[in-house]
Amino acid sequence: MAKRKLKIMVASTVYHFKTDLEQLCYTLRGYGYKVLNSHIGTVYSIPGKSPTDSCLAAVNDCDFFLGIILPFYGSGITHKEFKEAIKLDKPRGYLAHHDVAFSRLLLKDFMLDPITKKRNKFKLIKKTPVMDDLRVIDMYNDAVGDGLPMKKRLWAQEFHSYSSQGAPFISTQFEDIDRFRSDLENLKK
């Protein structure tokens, strides 16, 4: 009997990443996964519901959530997907663009209240070609579990160029589907 295909939800990140996102999704499909992604049209659009509702339902339905953190925030659906995956404690992993990781380190002392260690109201005055909204740093912090004990944090693979740094990570993580399935099953124990 054939095993059920594992469903990987690839975050709805699109801005400035369409071609790479398509390559990532088709690579995963080539390995034998069922890919849920709004951009390539594989997220079920629930009749009468918003795109956000449909994307959050896909997060709920997936076996693994793959978040992508880019320096462009967009509509905020991706951030809602991240929060849903975290709330549901879905097995998940992340790719993070270098500019977000670098900016996070650079701006940490300005974005966090030194006493409470909570996010202050610091924000960009206007969009820049490098980053359009500091909420992408919030996404990164949410993704990795910033502030949690080290053993509860997650990996965010940094990349500058998807083809040279992101694609090898995707290959390493997902090409051995039996190993990945076994690792997911071990998480349930």
Annotation keywords:
single chain, alpha/beta, 189 residues, 5-stranded parallel sheet, 7 helices
Secondary structure: elements and pairs:
Blueprint: E1 7-10, H1 18-31, E2 34-36, H2 51-61, E3 64-69, H3 77-87, E4 92-97, H4 98-111, H5 135-144, E5 156-159, H6 162-174, H7 177-187
Parallel strand pairs: 1-2, 1-3, 3-4, 4-5
CATH H-tier superfamily: Toll/interleukin-1 receptor homology (TIR) domain
CATH topology: Rossmann fold
Q: Mean pLDDT across all residues, rounded?
A: 91
Total strands: 5
Low-confidence stretches: none
Which value, in Å, is the CA radius of gyration? Answer: 17 Å
Describe the protein.
The protein is an alpha/beta fold and about 190 residues long. The protein has a single domain, classed as 3-Layer(aba) Sandwich (Rossmann fold). Helices cover about 45% and strands about 10% of the residues. The chain is built from seven helices and five strands; from the N terminus they run βαβαβαβααβαα. The chain has a five-stranded parallel β-sheet, sandwiched between helices. β3, α3 and β4 form a beta-alpha-beta unit. α3 (about 75-85) runs parallel beside α5. The longest helix has 14 residues, at about 20-30. It starts with 6 loop residues before the first strand and ends with a helix.
